[in-house]
Write a structure and sequence with these properties.
Keywords: Methyltransferase, Transferase. It comes from Streptomyces humicola. One of its GO terms (molecular function) is methyltransferase activity. This is Class I SAM-dependent methyltransferase. Strand 4, helix 6 (about 145-155) and strand 5 (about 160-170) form a beta-alpha-beta unit. With about 220 residues, the chain is of the alpha/beta class. Helix content is about 35%, strand content about 15%. It has seven helices and seven strands, in the order ααβαβαβαβαβαββ. It has one domain (about 5-210): Vaccinia Virus protein VP39 (Rossmann fold, 3-Layer(aba) Sandwich). Helix 5 runs parallel beside helix 6 (about 145-155) and helix 6 (about 145-155) packs parallel to helix 7 (about 180-190). Bound molecules: S-adenosylmethionine.
Length: about 220
């Protein structure tokens, strides 16, 4: 496995975000493998660009591009009063006063020297997925962690994953004592659909390869 350049690793480690180094390197390895398909690498959940840096480095090396999707207003748990709130990421304009991670993301990517390897899409993931029409080499799901959001990301993006492409899901915790269950539930759905085979795990990061079959649509109810 190749490693990110030292400057890129340093940029990753100094970026704000929620991706530990070992999981980041596993994401980078998956992205490097997926990039061989020559298709874009898609991330849901840019936040401040920590994981995007590693997707961008793999895309650069593989001659493809990373696409990253976020409305930049933060997930539920990042809002004021919640566990993962960072007050420095609130827009200082009193007429806005909402989370805004876009400026920090842009600064992070610029400093990492990877701007040319990323297309950033600002908006709600399911709305962008509904407009999407290009096969993807990798889908990395790290957006909203409620059932509503995780399921919408799974349903919206996995149909665009090319056969042989990789689905990567972050924060998969089989034991509810370790964390929320929505990412675990979409991981289970992926496996039960028969459309994916599992590759080695790194802590809460799961990597699944898509076979020729189409992932199942959500069940009603
Ligand atoms: C856990 S953070 C992503 C962390 C990032 N991947 C990292 O490595 O640091 C989740 C992000 O998903 C975004 N998000 C949540 N729900 C979303 C949705 N429905 N559409 C677009 N972005 C969403 C939030 O704004 C937040 O920035």
């Amino acid at each position: 496995m190749t490693k990110p350049r030292p400057s890129v690793l340093a940029a990753f480690e100094s970026a704000k975000g929620f991706m530990p180094l070992d999981e980041g390197l596993a994401l980078y390895a998956a992205a490097g493998e997926a990039a061989r398909l020559g298709l874009p690498l898609l991330e849901v959940g840019t936040y401040c660009g920590r994981s995007t840096i590693l997707l961008a480095e793999a895309a650069r090396e593989g001659g493809t591009v990373a696409v990253t999707v976020d409305h930049h207003r933060g997930s539920e748990e990042q809002q004021p009063g919640w566990e993962y709130h960072d007050p420095s990421l609130v827009d200082p304009d009193p007429d806005v006063a909402r989370m805004d991670t876009l400026p920090v993301f842009r600064r992070t990517l610029f400093k990492a020297g990877l701007e040319d390897h990323v297309i950033a899409l600002v908006g709600r993931s399911p709305r962008i997925a509904a407009l999407w029409g290009t096969p993807l080499g990798l889908v990395f799901i790290d957006g909203g962690h409620t059932d509503e959001h995780a399921s919408a990301d799974f349903d919206g993006w996995t149909p665009h994953l090319a056969p042989g492409g990789l689905l990567v899901i972050h924060d998969v915790f089989p034991d509810p004592a370790d964390g929320g269950q929505a990412p675990y539930r979409i991981y289970r759905r992926a496996l039960e659909s028969g459309a994916f085979t599992e590759l080695p795990t790194t802590r809460s990061l799961r990597v699944l390869r898509r076979s020729g079959r189409q992932p199942m649509a959500a069940q009603p109810g």
